[in-house]
Amino acid sequence: MLPRGRPRALGAVTLLLLLLLLVGFFLFDGLRAAATLDGDLYGSRNRSAASLQPLLPPKCELLHVAIVCAGYNSSREVITLVKSLLFYRKNPLHLHLVTDAIARNILETLFRTWMVPAVVIRFYDAEELKPLISWIPNKHYSGLYGLMKLVLPSILPLSLARVIVLDTDVTFSSDIAELWALFAHFSDKQVVGLVENQSDWYLGNLWKNHRPWPALGRGFNTGVILLWLDRLRQTGWEQMWKLIAKQELLTLMATSLADQDVFNAVIKEHPELVHPLPCVWNVQLSDHTLAERCYLEAADLKVIHWNSPKKLRVKNKHAEFFRNLHLTFLGYDGKLLRRELFGCPNQLPPGAEQLQQALAQLDEEEPCFEFRQQQLSVHRVHITFLPHQPPPPRPHDVTLVAQLSMDRLQMLEALCRHWPGPMSLALYLTDAEAQQFLHFVETSPVLSARKDVAYHIVYREGPLYPVNQLRNVALAQALTPYVFLSDIDFLPAYSLYDYLRASIEQLELGSQRKAALVVPAFETLHYRLSFPNSKAELLTLLDAGSLYTFRYHEWPQGHAPTDYARWREAKAPYHVQWAADYEPYVVVPRDCPRYDPRFVGFGWNKVAHIIELDAQEYELLVLPEAFSIHLPHAPSLDISRFRSSPTYRHCLQTLKEEFHQDLSRRYGAAALKYLTALQQSQSRA
């Protein structure tokens, strides 16, 4: 039986619990209210996008996106943005890219080789837009490019009614169709959709004498914009923004936040034009951001905007979470985004259908299936991955051309010390490795100081190393009249760059004389080598057994025609004859024949190229003072497979025979000597 005082105690506990629940309710209600940045100004307009439940567009409707992109770094940013778009999208996309020449060169190559279905790309020349906005002084780090969104209604096709405009530094975490659906919420007068600015910038109280451009309340951020283009044109947008900008520039002298200042000044005078978007569609991560008031949980996030000059280094409450989300797309394998949109009309990129047919004809049971499949692989290519300063035009200049993978990255610093001239290097990397490479270069005093080295990323795909495809990418991007076709594990003589340029001039190479200048190759088995500064020092090391002629003990026929005995005494360049399996490292004009891409993995990739040079009547001239030394390293996976697998060697032999058949078709009877030499070489083996 309960004591008489117990019901009174229970009543007190119950009352306390009710009070706690009531306090919790008010706290939760307050937290929900904090999810809007300025509830008194826009009220429910800044609620979570999920609460609006927009009607999505039909799944095959084409969605239009406009992006301004200039330079090397911005080109990398836009690729990460596009990855996030493609990951979530369910609709075809038409990307309208306003670019400078650098970005267009990079992105044209990338999208052509990416071959993503249901994506259309159109480029617009940023140079043509500069006169339209160059009269506006701008303090923002984006320069003139930061003002170009103002003139998009003038340059985009008149047939285009609506477009989403994005900064390159945004990352999507939802389907862009949900954002497109918000056009349906515009009133008849609204022409632009924007998210409220998530800082106090436009309130004008950040520091003494801080004078921002006029804005409605906190103003709006233009990292994500919905533009109703035909309505904008009907309102006289061009005349409107120019008139207001000129008025404000009389007292403010320049924009601080580029186009955003002008958009806000227009909206201040014409608030009926703006449709405020839910804040989760532009979560802004600047230093003084108030973005955390916008979202309650990760599921609310739609678009993350790195709108600080510090980008990923910005510090705020949830910066680590946002960084991890962004890094997910940085390292995400782009080839996985080559997904067709089922149920939509065929929207394959150029060449994709023929490629699919060729792949379908392959026999997976055929012993050389891997080789056939690798030959057909279309690798994504990102040329000039890092900022690059092209060399000034010089008639006898030489670019070192080579290729490498992640396991040879440590060779780069030594190579830069040995070769002071321009280089064009193709790197075979995964998306994640490309980011590691970027960090490696940025933190290396040697590599970060060299702006004349062009790095081109060829993204990994398939089991075999596409060595000749890599060489062709690097060769195609060389900008000097001549190229030194080398390998990454060779260090050239310190004086070789200057010596090659002088030799080209002295030998009067050019259109009148087709020649391949042979650079004799040597090797050391020591990981530490006192590198010779001259031919005399090299010969001393050779005689002492510290150096050897390259591959003399494994593949002597590869370099024997160079005639090292003659080179020891030579004072002038001398002519040598082509011989079977000859594969020297040579200096040739930039427009030389390309490498045969059928040779993947290990074996005969350089041999076939030298045959092609000989077939086109290039003279082989050995340079008497030139040399390059191979450094030891662990064997590659492909050479290990070559040594251990009879099937691998059989497939290489098949490729050789097919190569000779193609030679016969192209050169007729002149190609007979190569087939004869091959047969003699096989009989000796």
TrEMBL record:
Q: Gene3D superfamilies, per this entry?
A: Spore Coat Polysaccharide Biosynthesis Protein SpsA, Chain A
Entry's SUPFAM superfamilies? Nucleotide-diphospho-sugar transferases
Which GO biological process entries does UniProt record here? protein O-linked glycosylation via mannose
Q: In which pathway does it act?
A: Protein modification; protein glycosylation
Membrane topology listed for this record: Single-pass type II membrane protein
* Highest taxon, organism lineage: Eukaryota
Q: Which reaction does it catalyse?
A: 3-O-{beta-D-GlcA-(1->[3)-alpha-D-Xyl-(1->3)-beta-D-GlcA-(1->](n)-4)-beta-D-Xyl-(1->4)-Rib-ol-P-Rib-ol-P-3-beta-D-GalNAc-(1->3)-beta-D-GlcNAc-(1->4)-O-6-P-alpha-D-Man}-L-Thr-[protein] + UDP-alpha-D-xylose = 3-O-{(1->[3)-alpha-D-Xyl-(1->3)-beta-D-GlcA-(1->](n+1)-4)-beta-D-Xyl-(1->4)-Rib-ol-P-Rib-ol-P-3-beta-D-GalNAc-(1->3)-beta-D-GlcNAc-(1->4)-O-6-P-alpha-D-Man}-L-Thr-[protein] + UDP + H(+); 3-O-{(1->[3)-alpha-D-Xyl-(1->3)-beta-D-GlcA-(1->](n)-4)-beta-D-Xyl-(1->4)-Rib-ol-P-Rib-ol-P-3-beta-D-GalNAc-(1->3)-beta-D-GlcNAc-(1->4)-O-6-P-alpha-D-Man}-L-Thr-[protein] + UDP-alpha-D-glucuronate = 3-O-{beta-D-GlcA-(1->[3)-alpha-D-Xyl-(1->3)-beta-D-GlcA-(1->](n)-4)-beta-D-Xyl-(1->4)-Rib-ol-P-Rib-ol-P-3-beta-D-GalNAc-(1->3)-beta-D-GlcNAc-(1->4)-O-6-P-alpha-D-Man}-L-Thr-[protein] + UDP + H(+); 3-O-[beta-D-GlcA-(1->3)-beta-D-Xyl-(1->4)-Rib-ol-P-Rib-ol-P-3-beta-D-GalNAc-(1->3)-beta-D-GlcNAc-(1->4)-(O-6-P-alpha-D-Man)]-Thr-[protein] + UDP-alpha-D-xylose = 3-O-[alpha-D-Xyl-(1->3)-beta-D-GlcA-(1->4)-beta-D-Xyl-(1->4)-Rib-ol-P-Rib-ol-P-3-beta-D-GalNAc-(1->3)-beta-D-GlcNAc-(1->4)-(O-6-P-alpha-D-Man)]-Thr-[protein] + UDP + H(+)
Q: Name one GO cellular component term.
A: Golgi membrane
> Which InterPro entries does the UniProt record give?
Glyco_trans_8, Nucleotide-diphossugar_trans, Xyl/GlcA_transferase
Q: Which residues form a coiled coil?
A: none
State the family named in the UniProt similarity comment for this chain.
In the C-terminal section; belongs to the glycosyltransferase 49 family. In the N-terminal section; belongs to the glycosyltransferase 8 family.
What name does this protein carry?
LARGE xylosyl- and glucuronyltransferase 2 isoform X3
